[in-house]
Amino acid sequence: MTDKEIVFRKKASDYYIVLIGVLGWAFILYSIPFAAIPEKPIVLILLIVLMLLAEYFPIPLFSITMFSTMTFPILYIMNLYFGIYTATAIFAVVLIFEAFHHKRSLRSTVFNIAQYTLSLVGANWLVKVWISQYPLSDPFLNLLIIYAFTSFYFLINNVLNDILFSIRPFPFTIKEWKSKALQELFISKMSIILLAFLEIYTNYLPENVIDFTTILFLTLWIGITTTSSILTKARIERKRLNALSMLSTELNRIITKDFGEKKRLLAETFNANAFVLLVKEHHEWNLLLKDGQVKSEVTWSDEMSLYLDEISEMTVVTEKEIENLPGNSIFNKMVLSQIFSPLIIDNDKVGMLIVGRVSGIGFIHDEIRLLTVLSNVLASTLKTRSLILENEKLLIVEERSRIARDIHDGIGQSLAGIVFQMESSLRKKENLPNEQIERWIYKLRDSLKELRQSIYSLRTCPVEKYGLKQAIEEKIRKVELEDEARITFTQKGEPYSLGYQIEKVIYDIFQESLQNSVKHAKADKIEVMLKYSREQTLIKIKDDGIGFSLYDKLIKGQTEPHFGILTMSELAHDFNAKLEIDSAEGKGTEIRLGIPHFS
Question: Which DSSP symbol is given to 595?
């Protein structure tokens, strides 16, 4: 859908909302003079109280995240007792109070009240026309009126809603329509059953107790629905807290690479149509994540950057204010309300979470409170991420400096000494003995070994290019092509990022173990397992090769400078990891490396 079409649909939906609002509120204003004080004011007052309770404590339908209300039976009885004008005026007042309490937007409040009014007036008029055209016998008249009035009310209400949903540019899928239709159908059936039961029951009662019985019946029903609503809200709150706790745990595991894997969980937490997560690095705003109704190319001007710098607390931006945002090119035209949540930790703004919604209603208090908690978690995560990235950069610089020193102090000095001795002998034209030449050759080979070790340290690890799992699979594929060993690889648990340095250690130890199994142990079958658990990350390499004596290997490793068991053990020790080697001659080898989370 193009921006031009979105703008056209928005204007069409605005005109439709204005049309419904004018028609509905015109009848409400027309009804006020005719809403006279009734003969039984106590009954009307009790019905108003029950209607307020029904609106304030909606009952859940189908799932704990879908809500509806059972106001209609009370509205029907109010219309039956006091007439359409009184029912319309009272219903509008109740809805205004409910919207004010829940801090709903003026636009949605005006439209919803007008829509319900037209549904009520339309149902009342259609029933009168139907009765006048097709008179019925008295025993079934009231029951049929209940059925007809309820059906007409919900039919008109759904048609008015569906027209708006079809016109507006926001997505409205068949699945959403079916869910809404089933919800309205369930409410209408419940209303018919309750009103029919009340009608049949009161027919057998004396006239002087009918009002009391009706109020008592509705009170019992509202009591049940209120209790159900309170319990369900408690369940929702618990579910929301559990989801937030889970998200916090997942985000705290995120280091550098798998932020994108959690964006769906992040979006579902605050139930939005679009969001972007910006990170502030070196006084500049950079896009870290985006999802939903976000432009393919997210850009912002210098004015927008200054605007982001100035935001110090949660800021809600509505439809009209969005147009005044400086150089805003983040969300599509469908997004009608936004909320800017700065990510601040220790008075340092490390990022910004911007959430968008296709509805102009905006965000309620509970959603803003949830976003505040989530923003605190994200701020902590981004700060940790920044510190880890800086630490990795420092480690790389330190490693390069160490290699430079090793080359200068070791290989460089050794080669310089050999060159000096050879030049001195050449100038003196000496006949060199074989022992001297052999010493030079030995020193040159020793320097060559050191040079190879330095080159090995400088090599780009496949983990950096592919990630740990893919790097392991790629190495296994290459080994299987070169050798005849059968290698199986399994991964258990949900993967999470460990940081480049730790993943490189895991890969290096895996690679060395695999090479030893193939080249030295002559293994035919090798099993590799990578396991992610809550306590640690474990990699296990098991083969059916010839095995070896661990004691002999350790003694031999003292004199061999290549990447061996001692080097593997030192690497594991540097990261507080546990390296276990289980082997014996003729019984194969199993190597296990476990890295705890705190490392």
Answer: E
| Least trusted range by pLDDT, from 2-6, 485-489, 509-513 | 2-6
Helix extents (H) in 516-575: 550-557, 565-574
**Burial class, 428, CB count within 10 angstroms (exposed 0-12 / middle 13-18 / buried 19+):** exposed
User: The tokens 């549904």 sit on which residue?
Assistant: 119
Distance CA 424, CA 47 (A): 114
566 near 542, Cβ under 8 Å?
no
Q: Band of the pLDDT at 384, cuts 50, 70, 90?
A: confident
Which residues are registered as beta bridge partners of 406?
A: none
Summarize the confidence of residues 148-156 as an average pLDDT: 92
Task: Decide the pairing of beta strands 578-583 and 589-596.
Answer: antiparallel
Contact 154, 162 (CB under 8 A): no
Kindly report the pTM of this predicted structure. 0.56
Name which of 146, 145, 176 is nearest 161 in CA terms: 176
What mean pLDDT do residues 410-422 have? 71
Q: Which of 177-181, 453-457, 497-501 has the highest mean pLDDT?
A: 177-181
Average pLDDT of the segment spanning 306-324? 80
Q: Which amino acid is at 290?
A: K
Q: In what order do the strands lie in the sheet with 525-532?
A: 486-492, 525-532, 536-543, 589-596, 578-583
Phi-psi region of 355 (alpha: psi -120 to 50; beta: other; left: phi over 0): beta
* Dist. CA 255–CA 498, nearest whole Å: 7
Token pair 């940790």 is found at: 384
Quote the CA–CA distance of 556 and 567 in Å, as a whole number: 13
> What's the rounded Cα separation, in Å, for the pair 298 and 304?
12
Average pLDDT value for residue range 222-238: 80
Q: What is the rounded distance in angstroms from the CA atom of residue 377 to the CA atom of residue 598?
A: 19
**Cβ–Cβ < 8 Å for 339, 325:** no
DSSP 3-state assignment of 349? strand
Residue 446, classified by CB atoms within 10 Å of its CB into exposed (0-12), middle (13-18) or buried (19+), is: middle
What is d(CA 551, CA 388) in angstroms, rounded to the nearest whole number? Answer: 38
- Hunting for tokens 């276990």 — which residue is that? 580
The residues, ordered by sequence, that sit 6+ positions from 160 with a Cβ below 8 Å of its Cβ are 20, 115, 118, 119
Return d(Cα 557, Cα 552) in angstroms, integer: 8
Measured CA angle at 345 (ends 343, 350), to 5 deg: 50
* Predicted pLDDT of residue 25: 93
* pLDDT score at 539: 93
For 170, 242, 530, the CA distances from 32, given in Å and listed in that order, are 36, 48, 73
Burial class (CB in 10 A: 0-12, 13-18, 19+), 220: exposed
Residue type, 59: I
pLDDT grade, residue 452 (50/70/90)? Answer: low
Q: Are 302 and 341 in contact (CB under 8 A)?
A: no
CA nearest to 283, candidates 349, 380, 346? 349
Cβ atoms 357, 363 nearer than 8 A? yes
